[in-house]
Design goal:
499 residues; mainly alpha; 3-stranded antiparallel beta sheet; 71% helix; 3% strand
């Protein structure tokens, strides 16, 4: 078969995305999600129906509904924020955005290859994110997510000196807004730098969208190139930026920067040039630790990844040799961790900032009664369910089914070649690391669709494995993008999300 005949042959194959087996699986997953949410509300009642209770919401107060009509809004888990009944103008905007997306996907399908350069994918992604956020207008969709009364922006505008802010962070931490109190100083300083660059909250929001979309597209395409063939890399970047969680939260959300840095860390860590790998990984990991305490995921992930690879490579060896191989394989994560620890030791000597004290204070706010498992076992179990379900709901039933099927394919392929093993180890290591955080009681509430966006690229790897392994046609790839983006539009149309 010639290269020119390949697209036509691929389009002529029997349906994969909408096969009878897959459609039935989508229905079962959807029903399962509905039943879990229904049982949640039946068993726990309306007391748990709104944003998390306690002395603070998970990420700020819900934004007011459009046109100030409070009768149109109501709160309900698992959609932290406000569910709203859209007005006719909002419906029109959503239809226009959807129509433009359909036209674009039809064009890509007729071109015969749904793959864009990273910069073009970033441009399409950021335009779509801004467009879906504008469904509720500039003020509510763009400005308020970052300029609201309890957002980090209000801390950033009070910063007069970066050095003084870091030096006095332990004193300032209790006086910050509810978002900033549970983060290292980097969260406020990122917004501070963006404030210097862009000025107004609305422009800062657009700045976060541009930086995160461009960075994610470049890093993801580079990462996928190392794991798959070139053809799927551009498609992966576009699929990622169309994800509902990315569409809802990549604008004016500090965790868009966090997700981008995790992607950058993974890309650099796997880079074939050792010097580039070490320098890039060190920079990304330091920035992660400086912005969020959830950077523990990244550290756990690197150790888990190397351990899984070492164990797979010494499956038939003696226990001693396997232990030695694991210790040898984790040298780079150990070196990176040691460098980060040394950096914070130097920062403490230079400024007096104590990272551990800042973490302990944030932990005391999140868990005032100690570990939730011991203090309130029922709430611990409930919130663990919330954490998993939030990611799954935003990821959607279609991608969830494809990811599951792809993971099974990856398990079978892991022993055949090094690239297959690398793919499988990456995904399993990411899932194990996230599970450890969940079991440790982090996050406290089900807000993971927002703050755990860093897991999404790892969930897409098995999806891409399924797409390539089944020979999914160009038409079906375009349809998958359409289904994913359609879900994002619906979530944006009917929701005002807590940031």
């Amino acid at each position: 078969m010639t290269a020119e005949e390949a697209p036509a042959h691929r389009d002529s194959q029997s349906g994969v995305l909408l096969s009878r087996e897959n459609i039935w699986a989508y229905v079962k997953v959807t029903l399962g999600i509905v039943l879990i949410v229904a049982f949640y509300h039946i068993l726990l009642g309306p007391a748990r129906a709104g944003p998390p209770d306690g002395r603070r919401p998970p990420s700020g107060s819900p934004r007011p509904p459009p046109a100030g009509d409070s009768s149109r809004a109501f709160n309900s888990w698992p959609l932290w924020g406000q569910l709203v009944i859209p007005s006719p103008p909002e419906i029109v905007v959503a239809l226009v955005v959807s129509a433009v997306a359909v036209i674009g996907l039809v064009y890509l399908h007729r071109r015969g290859r749904i793959s864009l350069s990273p910069w073009l994918a970033a441009a399409v992604g950021m335009i779509s994110i801004i467009a879906t956020s504008l469904i509720h207008g500039w003020e509510i969709g763009i400005v308020q997510p970052i300029g609201g009364p309890i957002e980090i922006f209000n801390d950033a505008v009070r910063v007069r000196s970066v050095i003084d802010f870091i030096s006095n962070y332990e004193t300032l931490q209790p006086t910050l807004t509810v978002h900033a109190q549970t983060h290292p100083p980097g969260a406020v300083l990122v917004i501070y730098v963006l404030c210097l660059a862009f000025g107004s909250p609305g422009m800062i929001a657009l700045g976060i969208c541009v930086i995160s979309s461009a960075g994610s597209a470049v890093f993801l395409k580079g990462l996928v190139r190392q794991l798959f063939d070139e053809d799927i890399a551009g498609y992966a970047a576009l699929l990622y930026l169309f994800l509902p969680a990315v569409q809802a939260y990549y604008l004016a959300n500090i965790y868009a920067i966090v997700a981008t840095l995790v992607l950058g860390l993974t890309y650099f860590y796997l880079h074939p040039d050792r010097r580039v790998a070490f320098a890039g990984s060190l920079v990304c990991l330091f920035l992660l630790t400086f912005i969020t305490f959830l950077s523990a995921f990244a550290v756990l992930f690197l150790f888990a990844f190397e351990t899984l690879k070492a164990l797979a490579g010494t499956r038939d060896g003696a226990i001693v040799s396997r232990v030695v191989e694991v210790l040898r394989s984790i040298r780079l994560p150990l070196l990176l961790s040691a460098c980060i620890a040394a950096a914070y030791a130097l920062l403490s000597l230079a400024t007096g900032f104590n990272y551990i004290n800042a973490f302990l204070y944030a932990s005391s706010l999140e868990n005032p009664n100690g570990l939730t498992l011991l203090a309130n076992p029922i709430e611990y179990v409930v919130t663990r369910v919330e954490d998993v379900m939030d990611i799954m709901i935003f990821f959607g039933p279609i991608l969830s089914v494809l990811a599951y099927r792809g993971l099974l394919m990856m398990r079978d392929e892991a022993g055949r070649d090094g690239r297959g093993l690398k793919r499988y180890a990456l995904v399993v290591a990411a899932l194990i690391s996230l599970a450890i955080l969940f079991l440790a009681g982090t996050p406290k509430k089900g807000e993971t669709a927002r703050i755990c966006m860093f897991i999404l690229p790892f969930l897409l790897i098995p999806v891409l494995t399924y797409i390539t392994g089944t020979g999914m046609s160009t038409k079906e790839r375009a349809m998958l993008l359409g289904f994913v983006f359609g879900q994002a539009v619906l979530l944006q149309l009917f929701g005002l999300w807590v940031w």
